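stage 2 :: seqdesign
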């Protein structure tokens, strides 16, 4: 399929939510080209939406959850896998709760909903990511390697920590093989895990109707296993759903050993960083655009309110490796612009991540807070005060920040009450927004 696809019409399904145990109504809707897949919470005021993108992943403990501000959607991988398996690029998933129905623990019911809705091609071309060189991830027991391939193929080995029920399966993932070989595989858990899950309120809607339970060497289920190797096939189902968070199909052969949602999502982040490398290189060597040439450094420093590193360090108590702003480029009223040169010598690159360094999103958030603190200190002319980071809202991480990038931190002070300030901040690289947040902080004696 060379063109993008969406649904032909709306189709609905109702069932029980795994976490809540409450009834959930879900409707799949068509969406325009290039809009991607989005979840819409129709039970909340304004019907807020969350894009099914890797930057919105908030939790990966036993399932994949998305969050945007205070809005959350849990256990998204099965419905996303159904859409991706059929090659649907654009759709809206309406929910009246914070999770899709768990159905029977597989993607079978979601496939039926999609079949009922039908699929239609769109005029716009699909742009898959074609793997050109191997990509590797080692994360705990999870090993993942992506090789070049003409189509999309998954080879997977799964087992528990004790090596029980070790299974292997490999298949080319097409709409046909997705529907016959992967979509019916149900989620599973080990008996010894159930007490923890129940105690923490994680499976109020869980039962043998929607999961297979393994106890010692016995398999507890309401029906015979749907495949002799159903467990590894469900792991592959999860991979299809999690990898769809890249926002575009993949042409490559993925070999996975003991995959997990955390590993799957981290691998998507690594793929996203790989995709951006040629673009970053082109930006590095391309001349500045004629219509908006960057100001020479001397002019930047000369702008009103500019501060060099020494002046910044007089205001902020932070020091290496936690000083996240090198200079202040300008201060105008309630707005400030800071700069951080992200060098390859940053200490955090040693562990985040070996072989594919990415600046942690929380440190971009810290940079926003530090620049906001400088603005508040200058605004109220506080002496010997320290700005303490209190909270953050509407946090979004949109693109990875790599060694060699120059991080521009733009902050607007929105509210000041006594020694408490609120601000909106955006981090940019090359003019593109890489992260943003609304932060609250307080001044106290240093």
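stage 2 :: out
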């Amino acid at each position: 399929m060379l063109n993008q696809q969406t649904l032909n019409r709306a189709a609905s399904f109702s069932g029980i939510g795994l976490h809540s145990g409450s009834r959930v109504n879900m409707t799949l809707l068509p969406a325009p080209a290039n809009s991607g897949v989005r979840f819409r919470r129709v039970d909340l005021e304004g019907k807020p939406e969350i894009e099914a993108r890797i930057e919105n992943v908030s939790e990966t403990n036993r399932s994949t959850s998305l969050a945007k501000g205070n809005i959350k959607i849990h256990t998204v991988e099965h419905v996303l896998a159904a859409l991706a398996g059929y090659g649907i690029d654009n759709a809206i998933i309406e929910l009246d709760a914070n999770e899709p129905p768990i159905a029977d623990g597989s993607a079978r019911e979601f496939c039926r909903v999609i079949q009922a809705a039908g699929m239609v091609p769109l005029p716009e071309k699909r742009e898959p990511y074609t793997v050109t060189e191997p990509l590797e991830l080692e994360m705990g027991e999870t090993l993942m390697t992506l090789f070049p391939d003409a189509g999309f193929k998954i080879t997977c080995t799964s087992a528990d920590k004790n090596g029980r029920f070790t299974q292997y399966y490999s298949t080319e993932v097409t709409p046909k093989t997705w529907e016959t070989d992967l979509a019916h595989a149900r989620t599973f858990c080990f008996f010894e895990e159930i007490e923890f899950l129940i105690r923490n309120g994680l499976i109020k809607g869980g039962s043998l109707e929607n999961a297979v339970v393994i106890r010692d060497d016995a398999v507890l289920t309401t029906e015979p296993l749907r495949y002799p190797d159903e467990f590894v096939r469900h792991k592959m189902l999860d991979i299809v759903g999690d990898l769809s968070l890249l926002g575009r199909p993949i042409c490559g052969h993925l070999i996975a050993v003991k995959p997990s949602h955390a590993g799957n999502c981290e691998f998507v982040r690594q793929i996203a960083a790989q995709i951006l490398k040629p673009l970053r290189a082109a930006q590095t060597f391309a001349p500045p655009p004629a219509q908006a040439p960057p100001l020479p450094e001397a002019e930047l420093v000369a702008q009103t309110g500019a501060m060099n590193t020494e002046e910044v360090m007089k205001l902020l108590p932070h020091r290496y490796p936690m000083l996240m702003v090198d200079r202040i480029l300008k201060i105008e009223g309630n707005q400030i612009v800071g700069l951080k040169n992200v060098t390859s010598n940053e200490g955090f690159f040693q562990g985040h991540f070996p072989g594919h360094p990415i600046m942690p999103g929380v440190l971009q958030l810290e940079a926003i807070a530090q620049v906001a603190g400088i603005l508040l200190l200058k605004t109220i002319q506080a002496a010997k005060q320290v700005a303490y980071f209190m909270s953050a809202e509407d946090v979004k991480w949109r693109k990875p920040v790599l060694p060699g990038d120059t991080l521009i931190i733009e902050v607007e002070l929105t509210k000041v009450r006594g020694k408490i300030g609120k601000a909106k901040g955006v981090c940019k690289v090359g003019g593109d927004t890489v992260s943003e947040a609304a932060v609250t902080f307080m001044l106290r004696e240093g």
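stage 3 :: structure notes
- DSSP finds nine helices and 25 strands in the chain.
- The first strand starts at residue 3 and ends at 7.
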